Each structure stands twice: as structure tokens, then as C-alpha cells.
Amino acid sequence: MACIGVGSQGKGDLEGFLKFKEAQVVAVADVDASRTAEFRKKFPEARVYTDYRELLDKEKPDSVNVSTPDHMHAPQGMAALQRGIHVY
Length: 88
Prior knowledge:
The protein starts with a strand and ends with a strand. The chain is an alpha/beta fold. It is 45% helix and 17% strand. It has a 5-stranded parallel β-sheet, with helices on both faces.
């Protein structure tokens, strides 16, 4: 899976997903460098992007979790759906 937004809600969502042994985070996108720095410490093997469009262009996750401000849910979710990626 990939995550768009890893602030408080995104971090909580990610922790919930990772309770399942089948879940593996492969990439994240967030515009806040302090959030991605914290993420890199926990998941050094995952790729980090500042632009969700670049993540969606370069990665092929099974699903993406959108945890960004409300006004970005539709454009980010639709961009993932148009690429055949499941959205939460």
C-alpha cells in the first residue's frame, strides 16, 4: 500500500493497516518534510515523495490511503482510481 498524507490521521490509519500481516507500506507522499522524516525512521525501505502525482506515476501499489485535508480527497482519490488503484 501507499499513503498520501502521514500526519496524525494518516499515521493512525497506517498503524491500523499494519496490524494485518498482509499489509506492507511501499511508498508515501506528504508535503511536510518533518512528517516524512519521522516516516523514514520507521520505514527506511519505503520510498518518499513530496508530490502524490509523482508517487502515483512511479509506484504500483494495490491500494492508497488518502489522509489529507478534505478538499484534496477527491482529486487524489480520483487520480489513484484512474490508475486502477484501490482507495481508502
